[in-house]
Amino acid sequence: MREQLERMTESRRAVQFALPSDEDEPRALYARLIAAWNGRDAEAFAGLFAPGGTAIGFDGSEMAGRAEIASALGEAFASHRTVPYATRLRSVRFVGPGAAVVRAVAGMMPPGKEELDPDLHAQHTVLAEGRPGAWRIVLFQNTPARFHGRPEAVAALTEELRASE
Description:
Elements (H helix, E strand, L loop, with lengths): L1 H17 L5 H15 L3 H6 L1 E8 L5 E3 L1 H14 L5 E12 L2 E10 L13 E8 L6 E9 L6 H14 L1
Parallel strand pairs: 1-6
Antiparallel strand pairs: 1-2, 3-4, 4-5, 5-6
């Protein structure tokens, strides 16, 4: 019995040791996602996803798989003048071996405007899976950050985003 417990303890230590501590790859993955959006490159955006990955847009629309993501964004980029994101990465949290949650905030400055539009502020959440050199997005969620009834929260987020520009 004691040997079993010792093996289990060693096994747990091995798992803890295997947990990645380097945030560079999940951070770089998020940066490439934003660069693809800002560059209006639907193929590059979709290519960052795992084969069965899902993207949930600001309006709540859901796109499943690289082909659907590329198609939907390609149509959006062709028919709308999308606005680039200004972002601030808030955290990377490893939730298991080869799995990380990336959290960021984002804002947009519409064409012809000098300020970020608080109605376009968003919270970004990315669930990423990977191994060194091969990280992919499993889920990207782009949630409006409207803070209904809390104008001080909107102002604070606007200031946070301005500071990151």
